[in-house]
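Final report, closing paragraph on structural work. Over the funding period we assembled a curated collection of sequence-structure pairs, and we close with a single example.
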Amino acid sequence: MAAPHLHLLLVLSLALSLCLFPDTARAQLRQNYYASSCPRVESIVRGVVQNKIKQTFVTIPATLRLFFHDCFVQGCDASVMVASTATNKAEKDHSDNLSLAGDGFDTVIKAKAAVDATPGCRNKVSCADILAMATRDVIALSGGPSYAVELGRLDGLSSTAASVNGKLPQPTFTLNQLTGMFAANGLTQTDMIALSAAHTLGFSHCSKFANRIYSFSRQRAIDPTLNSTYAKALQSMCPRNVDPRIAINMDPNTPRTFDNMYYKNLIQGMGLFTSDQVLFTDSRSKPTVNKWATDSKAFQQAFITAMTKLGRVGVKTGRNGKIRQDCAVLA
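Its predicted structure, as stored:
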């Protein structure tokens, strides 16, 4: 009778372990992860970010966008940093990533070099964690909230352009499409609305929203959900047959400040993308937009919650990852 009892005990023990640790990757993440191995890592990264911002403001939206694009494809593992080779077309060369500004990549590369140049820190900190820290810092340094970032990610072991297919939100997405894509990454609709406010910073190219200001339909040339005055301003900046690489501020009012102006703009019909404006035109998300447009503190707290959850997506641990010496090279 001892054997069956022992077997039952082992099964119960395993079941309890699974309940307590349903996600071992998430369990590895914690604040102050490098407290003993590289205690100054956060201040080192912040110093590099500050210097980069002095050189160019583009550092801020570029780094923030890089983090989103990384986490949504194979998880937050810095696979978006990898350069293509003669035998492998990497994530960064997928059409959805070609518009990622080089300053985001450069920020991580320089921060990695600064960390590795610090005695005792060489090859101790992953590129994925450096990107997560740098993202927190650009948000705070542009007026947004600061937060304790969870660390402990390893860098991914693969990066392919094919892995990007269907993984990133598109400017034409409906609320259902947005909600579904975020849900696939463990994020709620509220998280999605909060993270969309990243569009309060940075810029977009005319080709990404031209469909809203020219020949929207047979009946209307302009998207009716778009503020008419704003639409005319966009037409003046993006005339027909204009160079599609021309960049337009995502937020026409405070493009260099991380704030809740994004939601105020949506109420005025000034969301640049269809996927922005739908957050106000759809009755399911409209109440949240209205609340955060008037309650900056509530928005910032929701954003911190969403960013923390985003940073847990697809985290690599153990043999599923490594710490790259060169963020652009898998080997």
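The CA atoms of residues 189 and 325 lie 37 Å apart. The chain has two domains: 41-168+311-320, 175-306. We thank the funder for supporting this effort.
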